[in-house]
């Protein structure tokens, strides 16, 4: 079990760029303003960055840039010559990059580390996008016109319905809630309000999932700057949040749902932070499909098994509720540019803790959580990450 580190890394600043379809822009064009914005938000310069990690899952498949993605994306921002790595870990690529940066600061290797998550996932030939996504499985062949991830999500959704009495309408309510959050997020890819009936009548992807319940293929970038407490003191950085835990685990292909990767990453993070799940006031979770938000809440022990439906019905997970979830709009409405998503979650929680989320501000939270999962090993995620931030 992970132990509390000698140094608690701090978020000094960050930025999330717009998420959407940007086929006319290079990945450098998408990433550069976000890196510059994150440094400006932190009150730092490129010369202050001692190391960097870049989360990018599918650059080789979509933009034909593979081995030196970090160097290519960061050089235009003036970040050159320092240690940097490209991190590939499916949908957890960005949050895995955060984990590596967190570890480097927590154990004294560096004092200022930049993390960029960036992805161009859209392509004129959608089969190329689906083929790229399929590489995050251990399957030798998949249907080039569909997502195996939605197949697995749908299978768990059907089991959840049978076990706990959930309905397709509950899943639609999650999608509607997150779209309402995204309407207030100028960086979200989908900002038109929708109704439960519209979600239910949308095209069926695989029952019980309709298109409006599924995260779309989009492009985007997000960046965060982590610093050590000593560095923050010396530089007078006062508007910082504390990343008190960073849990990362790999999947168990023969495991059961109760001990899945998300559950184990959550347990590791809670133990490392010395925090009870009941202390979480705001959360960003990996809702690749609407029902997955319900699974994640339960896997993370934010409520009991089968109780996420009640939280949804009572409005607890909506903005203004007891524990708002995915106030950014989540993957289903903000969008899911794979390598960027985990970093965007960290920035969102940081902004919430700093009281800087504008119309999406969820009260005055003191503790927030960000969770990502990626890839498939059997029926489990290949990787899961959980970060806990406090003021």
Automatic annotation (TrEMBL):
Annotated Thiolase C-terminal domain residues: 260-381
Domain Thiolase N-terminal: start-end pairs: 18-206
Residue stretches spanning the membrane: none
Record Pfam families: Thiolase_C_1, Thiolase_N
Signal peptide: none
SUPFAM superfamilies the UniProt entry points to: Thiolase-like
Gene Ontology MF terms: acetyl-CoA C-acyltransferase activity
Family matches, as Gene3D superfamilies: 3.40.47.10
Cross-referenced PANTHER family: ACETYL-COA C-ACETYLTRANSFERASE, NON-SPECIFIC LIPID-TRANSFER PROTEIN-LIKE 2
Name the record gives this protein: Thiolase
UniProt source species: Pseudorhodoplanes sinuspersici
